[in-house]
Design brief:
236 residues, alpha/beta, 4 helices, 10 strands, 28% strand
Length: 236
């Protein structure tokens, strides 16, 4: 074996050890899609609270050597695929980023507790129902999220939505890129449904003195709402 061959062999071995030891940056950072200008904007202020972990009680299943390994990303990382853990607060904060970038709402903020709220109109909470991921080509990964929103002034439930995606890992494509695309698609479906729900109803807003006033959505014809929903689902 030549010196060069041995050098490449040692370099590959060192990289593999570094990856398995966690020395390679595997942190997943969600990147929302910027929308087109001029989209529908509702005069509502949203608060997103920490999501809950509703996944099954396991971190990994199967065996990497017989290609059956599955990772519960809500509880652990997938070092072989260079994917960091995605705990419930990752999903909550990523949803905040998505809602904020969309421009569909007056404001969107993440709060660790409802005691921190100021003048927000709706409280959004969520549950990570499933966060199963496998790096094995042609085996199925699955994410499931459950959302609900309550009106802050009277604690009335105004919106519920469950979104699920199942897909197969494609070799040769970056894991981060694949996960981003899946999450973007899930959030787009949830956001489109939230926009459609809030654009069709009035709501109560509480002021600093505790008094409430009724706020109506802007007068938008149904065709405009449908067009906006289509744009969201297309990722535009």
């Amino acid at each position: 074996m030549s010196v060069y061959s041995r050098g490449w062999k040692y370099l590959f071995f060192a990289f593999t050890i570094a990856l398995m030891a966690g020395c390679v940056n595997t942190k997943v950072v969600y990147k929302p899609i910027a929308p087109d200008a001029g989209g529908l904007k509702l005069p509502v202020k949203l608060a997103v609270l920490p999501f809950k972990d509703g996944t099954e009680d396991f971190t990994t299943r199967g065996n990497v050597y017989n290609y059956t390994k599955i990772y519960n990303l809500a509880k652990t990382e997938s070092r072989y695929a260079a994917v960091d853990a995605m705990p419930p607060n990752f999903w909550a904060k990523a949803f905040v980023d998505d809602l904020s970038v969309s421009g569909n709402f007056q404001s969107v903020r993440f709060f660790y507790s409802s005691l921190e709220l100021t003048d927000e109109d709706f409280l959004i909470e969520g549950t990570v129902v499933k966060a199963n991921f496998t790096h094995v080509v042609d085996r199925i990964s699955e994410f499931t999220l459950s959302f609900h929103a309550r009106q802050r002034a009277n604690d009335r439930l105004v919106w519920e939505k469950e979104v699920m995606r199942a897909w197969k890992f494609h070799g040769g494509v970056d894991s981060q890129e694949q996960i981003d695309q899946v999450i973007q698609d899930m959030f787009a479906e949830a956001r489109a449904d939230l926009v459609q729900t809030l654009s069709a109803q009035s709501w109560h807003r509480a002021d600093e003195d505790g008094a409430t006033s009724t706020v109506s959505p802007p007068q938008i014809d149904s065709e405009s709402v449908d067009t906006e929903i289509e744009k969201i689902l297309r990722g535009n």
